[in-house]
Each structure stands twice: as C-alpha cells, then as structure tokens.
Amino acid sequence: MSELDPVLSNDTKAILGLQLPTDPRWINLAQISLEEVLTDHAYCEQKAATTCISIIQRYSEKEEMVTALAPIVTEEWGHFRLVLAELKKRGWKLGKQRRDEYVNALLQFCQKGGSEEGRFLDQLLLMAMIEARSCERFKRLSEGLNDAYLRKFYRRFMESEAGHYTLFISLAETYINKEKVRSRWEEWLAYEAEVMKSLEPRGDRMH
Ligand SMILES: [Fe+2]
Ligand SMILES: [Fe+2]
Fold it and tell me: What is the C-alpha R_g of the chain?
C-alpha cells in the first residue's frame, strides 16, 4: 500500500489540490455502464502513454525528463493492457474512442504563444491535472462500486496515478522556478474546477 493512502482517504483535496470533488451522482452512473467506463478508461491510458511519447520527442534535450518519462510510457501502456484484459474477461468489447470533452476543455487553457518555457510548463501541468483528476475518479470507483474485484482494481490505479501527478509537478520544478510552477498550478486548479462545474456527469466517461 502506498504511504499516500491515509492522506488520500482523509482529504483528497489536500493531497491533490483539486478544488471540486467529483459530483456524487457520477459513481451511480458509472456503476450502470461499466463497459463504457472501462472503454473510456482504456483510451485515457492509451492517451497518457502516447502523450508521454510525444513529450519525449518534443523535449529530447531534457535528459532527466526523458529518463523519468520512458518508464511511465511502459506503465501507462501496461494500464491500457490491464483494462483491455478486464473488458475481455467480462466478455465486453473495447468500443470506439469518444470525444474527450474534459481534456479538450483543459487544452484550451494551455498557453499557445509566448515563451517556450511557459508552453513547456503548461504541457507538464496539463498532464499533472489529468493525473490528479483521474486519481480522484479512481478513488471514487475504488470506494463506490458494488463489484469488490473492481474496487481493488481501481485502488491500484489510484495509487499509480497519484505517483504520476507528483512526478509531473516535480519535473516542472526541475526545469522551472518553483514559485512560477506553484502560481501557474493554482491557476490550473481554479480553471479545472470551472471545467468540472460546466460538464454534466456522464456514466460513460472517466471524466
Ligand atoms: Fe495510468
Ligand atoms: Fe498516469
């Protein structure tokens, strides 16, 4: 068990910084459309792996980051395979990828022009943000699903994504002034809360 567990159970907000907890209706919706949740989850893992590969390609000169992200690609792809196996075990199919409204909304917040450093920072904070929210969602699933096996299944994902969230923040701090990272992260948290507020909870989506 991760040492983060007790802290997470006591106060997700404190550890992840999220300003808005998931709408409690979401878990009930997810409960009745597990095949779709697993499909959406599988694609979240696939996107996490592919985005880490893109970051490695784009910032190949940042040696420390490349070294840190290379195993994350493997881990995220391993997650994809775990979800795929779970679908198969249940006689379900990996459906088509859906429009990811949550991530699309977050992408709007990424700095487009301006300094290279600012764009790089937003790339890392975007990843940290998605990891943090995914971690919170996995926690909800690990506590709220009726299926005991899936509760355990999601607990392991929760632990893993908590580690990724911290990794992306600390990578940002490796290359960029801590104060800058902190203040931009605060802006991300506020923006993400607005995004969450604007989205209807859907049982066929991870976010
Ligand atoms: Fe993952
Ligand atoms: Fe992750």
Answer: 17
